[in-house]
Amino acid sequence: MDDAATEILEGTHRALYTHGYTDLTLEHIAAETTMSKATIHYYFDSKANLFTAYLEYLYDRYVEQIASVPDDRPRERLQSLLDVLLTTSDAGPNGKFRRAMLEVRAQAPYDDAIRTRLEKFDRFLYDELRSIIANGVDEDMFDEHVDPELTTEFLTAAISGAHTRHVAVDYPMDRLHEAARRYVDTQLVDETPEVIH
Amino acid sequence: MDDAATEILEGTHRALYTHGYTDLTLEHIAAETTMSKATIHYYFDSKANLFTAYLEYLYDRYVEQIASVPDDRPRERLQSLLDVLLTTSDAGPNGKFRRAMLEVRAQAPYDDAIRTRLEKFDRFLYDELRSIIANGVDEDMFDEHVDPELTTEFLTAAISGAHTRHVAVDYPMDRLHEAARRYVDTQLVDETPEVIH
Fold first, then answer.
1. B64, HSE (Cβ side, Cα atoms, 13 Å)
2. Is the entire prediction scored with pTM above 0.80?
């Protein structure tokens, strides 16, 4: 991707958290770049195509963010991931970005291109968590009765729900973060006390 | 509430799942009733006021639905509630209604009246689950180490996330339903095996 395209996608990001998704226009995006609407049109022939490219750009950043979490032992890696995913930082543009992304999610049922991209985020997180948990069970660090698929299902839904509740009803995420930490430490980690004879 | 007002709110419900929230107009609502736009205006002086009244009407139905779940022992009541909350029924208007409600949720950060009403739904479910779980711990049916607040936090988030994922990325809820059932049966219920001497 050349520099101009990258500049347009970065401008889309700023325009999105400033104006929200529903009200987003090409004018807003152009105002966040050094380019004209015509130049943006040259790179992306419709707002829909630009937004699809933006979601792919966002997906690459998401994958990088998850990959940057230290590849530690399963328990520690899971906790570090929860730290990244469930830490509330509404300072600066973060809170506005989350609001805009909930709008995008609400649009997904009506828009195949958006839904297909959001499915990639969902699938990526699911696969990542499942692989860590399966690994923990295989290496006898997690309880052998843990079912990696069902546990991942539960964690993925809880993380998604924490985001929606935080944005929609202004509910803090730190309690869920604590609940998820404790779930990992008490329900997944194999801490069968040794029997003393 | 008189019959005309009830008819308008029921019409709002049908118009909402037919047209979605973003595109909803008073014309759509009037078309779902025997009344004119002018009559609807007489009862509710703005679309915003009508929608707020509609969310309160919906809340009362939600409370009734939860209250209709048999008041059984904690484990059974919790499982029955999960059956109600996590059963996918997209037949008829249900699926469209869920899509529209995700739009309403995405609107909440920008609209105090909507957010305040959605908070009531969230709070009601949280309190209901917390009371069942606390009850189960008090009556020694659930493990004494279960923390009712944190457990409720986790369950509420998972239920909310299951709905969002189902609507936004078309993800089935039945796996989460199974995961939640198993969570209740293996993590909450006190099944310490008796020690045989």
1. 6
2. yes
